[in-house]
Amino acid sequence: MPNLSLLKNRLSRAAWKRVVVVLLICAPFSGFAQYWQAGGFIGTSNYSGDLVQTKVDLKYTRFALGVFVKRDINRYLTIRGGLSYGRIAGADSTNRDTFLLKRNLSFRSPIWEGQLGFEFNFLDLDEKKITPYVFASVALFSFYPTTKDSLGNTVNLRPLGTEGQGLAAYPTRKEYNLRQISIPFGAGVKILLTENWIAGFEFGLRKTFTDYLDDVSLTYVDRNTLVRTRGQKAANFAYRGDEVTLGSHVTPGTYPADGTTRGSDKYKDWYIFSGFTLSYRFGGGSNAHNNWKRQKVSQCPRF
Description:
Elements: H1 4-30, E1 36-48, E2 62-72, E3 77-91, H2 98-103, E4 106-121, H3 125-128, E5 130-143, E6 146-148, E7 154-156, E8 179-192, E9 197-208, H4 223-230, H5 232-238, E10 270-282, H6 288-298
Antiparallel strand pairs: 1-2, 1-10, 2-3, 3-4, 4-5, 5-8, 6-7, 8-9, 9-10
């Protein structure tokens, strides 16, 4: 009687050998008609953090622009790199939560981002003319939170140290870095308009490792210490509840005691870019489009 376990192992090894042979045969042709893409992005930017009551406040949607370059490794995998610019903003005054209304803070910030990553296409774009895709990248971005005073003048928030950053009395609170790493990821869909032009729409989240996109994270520091070391202006913009208008159902407040909750560092801040893309496809060798089509039907053996 044959040994079924031994036979199964031999069949498994034979199957794996066949897969390896197929991959070795196909591998040289996976880059046979590699395309380059160069294009642009136009859309919107949003923010999620301590100054919004919901995950995202669409009232503070701002514009975003970008350029990118892509390299098709094969029909399904693409390397992507790009530069993007957007603006994010938020304000307590548009929320309904009493705590946020009393705090009365606001911010705005530019976002500059450079990213490098991969796309995975679910369908063959040349065959189907349309494909959904997902992407993941690593990015370096910069930000600079500011706000407006009661006269409409721009005020830079980081130099004020509104939560005691850089003060000897609060040694654990360091000045936050304005250049940070983020992890962009998301999904989109693209359409092959012609052999060379590709249009699409993309939605991308950005996970950051900072809680200071909005200059808010922890607790209030002692007001007198803040005034003595950073000036009255720092205290004025650490808490703006005394500026609440008389017409509001929230009465003006006074600067909270040292250690009172100002924000929450439980979750880091996020930013979001979404919008439309248009790119021009080129390269891939002579007659690349037809070569790639022939490659798919004739070069790789089938099981």
